Amino acid sequence: MNIQGQAFRTIWLKPGDLTRIQIIDQRHLPHQLFIEDLETVDQMATAIKDMHLRGAGLIGAAAGFGIYLATLEAPKNDFFETFIFQAAEKLKSTRPTAVNLAWAVDRQLNAIQQGQSIEEKIDIALFMATQIADEDAEHCRHIGEHGLPLIEAISRKKNGAPVNILTHCNAGWLAFVDYGSATSSIYAAHDKGIAVHVWVDETRPRNQGASLTAWELGQHGVPHTIIADNTGGHLMQHGMVDMVIVGSDRTTYTGDVANKIGTYLKALAAHDNNIPFYAALPSSSIDWQMEDGLKEIVIEERHGDEVKYMEGLCESEIKKVLLTPLNSNAANYAFDVTPARLITGIITERGICKANRESILDLFPEKKQHG
Amino acid sequence: MNIQGQAFRTIWLKPGDLTRIQIIDQRHLPHQLFIEDLETVDQMATAIKDMHLRGAGLIGAAAGFGIYLATLEAPKNDFFETFIFQAAEKLKSTRPTAVNLAWAVDRQLNAIQQGQSIEEKIDIALFMATQIADEDAEHCRHIGEHGLPLIEAISRKKNGAPVNILTHCNAGWLAFVDYGSATSSIYAAHDKGIAVHVWVDETRPRNQGASLTAWELGQHGVPHTIIADNTGGHLMQHGMVDMVIVGSDRTTYTGDVANKIGTYLKALAAHDNNIPFYAALPSSSIDWQMEDGLKEIVIEERHGDEVKYMEGLCESEIKKVLLTPLNSNAANYAFDVTPARLITGIITERGICKANRESILDLFPEKKQHG
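^ Those are the sequences you sent over. The predicted structure of the assembly is below.
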């Protein structure tokens, strides 16, 4: 999507230089746009581990490019394969719970094995890294196309008045290679000239909404308003939200949606006020083994200091301030699970389905052996 | 309640000095306990206006003491009354929407008129200011006594394991003269030796939970854990909350509860998980004219910068950091309304009632002409 009028992705091969990958170092957002050059697999591993980049789709693409960098670095002799396998393990260990990471690395390893010579393996790694990234962007673009008619329908009902869409956390293009999941339909509608306005939950404690979603919407020119996470219910009670679209970190094939902590509260409010609530996600986020999201999905607990301290810009520097008594405990659960019964529909790259086993498997019939 | 083992109120006559009022300047909490001396009505007006103190009950008590300070300052001649009336107007204008403020000022004016001499009027003003403060503390103490059996019953059911209570914002003793409304039963249970643990919603955007509730619970020795406002739903889904107690800024006589923004979301989650949800409030917060909270209660909109910037302690100084893109809009609704249907009961100084017209009026039969 656009940054100051110029089209960007979150990760790309450096123009005119086949040996470097460039990424947006998201740690500096929203205050500074910082492009980082990466030329070793170690640098890529650090970028993933220390969250220069984050988001399921983007982590997968970064791992793919990481393996490509490893093929460039690897000794061009019998130790080539060993180096690649060590690089693969290194990349996989950066964020062990990220499903797309291992998937992208394994896809690269399988592809490289097909190469006859080291040169050919390097070519394959570049091709596959690019393909993983392109596929991620394409899946997100398709999610946008499938969600667009939902927004158009509301826009028609409102005679073109802005469609107010609430979103939580960052399921935007910054979490993928391009377009995003929850944001993709919003960008599609905006680019088609449909008036939209986004309520951006700030998303405590890590503020991904306030810092990332607000930034990317603003850069692309989409009208938006940041709100405290407490606010959505009040807005829905007063007819100020037309629909909710969120992303998902893991969705069971029965339609339970794990997403950033607080999503469940917004789903309850949408349900109480008869407002459509959609989860938008590439099918790679669907867990075909899990049946009961509340019982089976393990919720990551992070350090309480993310609640107690807050980072932001102060006199041109990033500073961290303490909000609480120094000695108070804080708990920090990263995700919650929204039960399928509260979800109007799931928007995937193949189309929209209901949040239940039958409807999901109708869209992905090749998975039926799991259902 | 206690601060480092010593009993405190939020406002008091300076020991050994009848000409000064002392308050906790809450702007420095939780990082520093700062006691401020006030000796003029202008200083008291500033303390109320600039929120050195806040909270319905405390504002009323402060206004009462403000009038007392005015009687000390006023010229002891024919202009005495004029000075007092001007002081009254000044105090009332500091926070025009605070119901208790005008009520306390008018109560003082009426009382002072009964005095025959200026000396007597001063004595009356001191007596009445003390009485307003004592009454506030007594009402809160009674709320605690009435709520205590609810906690005791859960404690018995859990065989003495800690009762987990979630609260939102600060309806603690810092918002009143002592005890608080939502916290009063919690302090009563803790002081009786019942094991309790409080989940403290940080309460964005002004963080009253993270800064004030956590501080006062910690100082009194009550176990507590601060959580992002997004977290409560997840905790309730997993049986980690036994009950919710919140305060109220205004409650209709039909049982709709206006409270800090985000309260409605917690009420929805409590309802969805079959967890009792109580509002604790002195009857002075009941609006005997209002029937439909959602339609009639006007919700204050505050400046968006409270969402965009956050204050905290950084290298021993209070600093303000920017969380969002500089140019993004932010909206800041201060309260929401929880419909009566989501509320298990209302705990008042007279006892507990259901959140409906009949039950509330049974507890306050003298108000029946309004129902």
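The domain at 2-135 of chain B is CATH 1.20.120.420 (Four Helix Bundle (Hemerythrin (Met), subunit A)). The first strand of chain B starts at residue 2 and ends at 3.

Shout if you want it in another format.
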